[in-house]
């Protein structure tokens, strides 16, 4: 599974949603999604830095997960900005459309981010699978 590093508070907005605006289903990127990853589920990694625009989004409680894998989401499409995807879509970017956001019960900490879609090491992949398998087993 690939991973995408997103600065806070937007990583939390993708996985947990904003208290007022709900889930962030458009991620702004300067390039389109490589076609082979369309439809794929990816890991969402909260980066080290706070996004400078984060202060403009009115959070009741500032998300604190940093340098951690916090969940997964599926890449379902991409389009060029057309003044769409409010309030998340930004002018001049490709809007990567995300769906099926799924939080990890326990974020995987101490993970350094990278640019673009990147490949986490096997330990991280195994930890994600273990959590989701445990969650599935716990359901009636
Ligand atoms: Zn859009």
What kind of sheet is the major sheet? 6 strands, mixed
- Uncertain regions spanning at least 5 consecutive residues: none
Number of helices: 2
Strand content: 35-45%
- Alpha carbon gap, first and last residue: 27 Å
Organism: Streptomyces niphimycinicus
Protein name: ASCH domain-containing protein
Description:
By secondary structure, the protein is of the alpha+beta class. It has a single domain (3-138), classed as Hypothetical protein (Archaeosine Trna-guanine Transglycosylase, Chain: A, domain 4, Roll). The chain contains 2 helices and 6 strands, in the order E-H-E-E-E-E-E-H. The chain has helices at 10-15, 122-138; strands at residues 3-8, 26-29, 41-50, 68-80, 94-108, 117-118. Strands 2-5-4-3-1-6 form a 6-stranded mixed beta sheet. The chain is globular, with a radius of gyration of 15 Å. The mean pLDDT is 92. It binds zinc ion. This is ASCH domain-containing protein. It comes from Streptomyces niphimycinicus.
